[in-house]
Amino acid sequence: MTIEWGWFPDHADEMARLTADHLATAVPAVLLGLLIALPLAVLAHRVRPLRGFVLGASNILYTIPSLAFFVLLLPVTGLTRTTAIVGLTAYTLVVLVRNTVEGLDAVPAKAREASQAMGTRPLRTLLTVELPLALPVIMAGVRVATVMSISLVSVASYIGYGGLGQLFTDGFQRNYPTPVIAGVALTLLLALVADALLVTVQWLCTPWRRGTTSRQRSFKWRKAA
Length: 225
Description:
MetI-like fold; 10 helices
């Protein structure tokens, strides 16, 4: 397999455009998935009889092959970016809903009881106590959903909104490996950068965990000494 390195500078503008298109499809899908998943997860956490239904419904959506899902959406949303975003949003739900439910389940009961004892309303307890404490688990789901969406965007090249996936299609159709390798490398780079950014966001949003981690490391160092 021969790579033509001169192809990369000649197609830099095209790669930049496709990268922007890739992000314009993946990022809204994750954000929409999070907006949908949060209330569903809270509902599943608070109303236990609905938990199985909510989690099961998200799992069923995930079992539909991505290409078939896009085809099913075409009569409704047409050959538009909306089709790709709706399909990807549905796939993020299985991760985001489950992780949010698990994060809320892991919140210590004493934290809720202390908030209620101070007369805090349930909604404020959710926003100021439960969700912040569940944030590490929720962010783990967001990271997985983001990487998954970035990888699945390429499948949307079938409807013309696959971002970097168009490089795959072009390379395979012409039996030309260079654009395929470029698409794979850029998709991987996007996933790594996005994951690193989300790790940074989580670190900034959970200052209490930084202190805990530092104390744990100090304790382990003293114990080893």
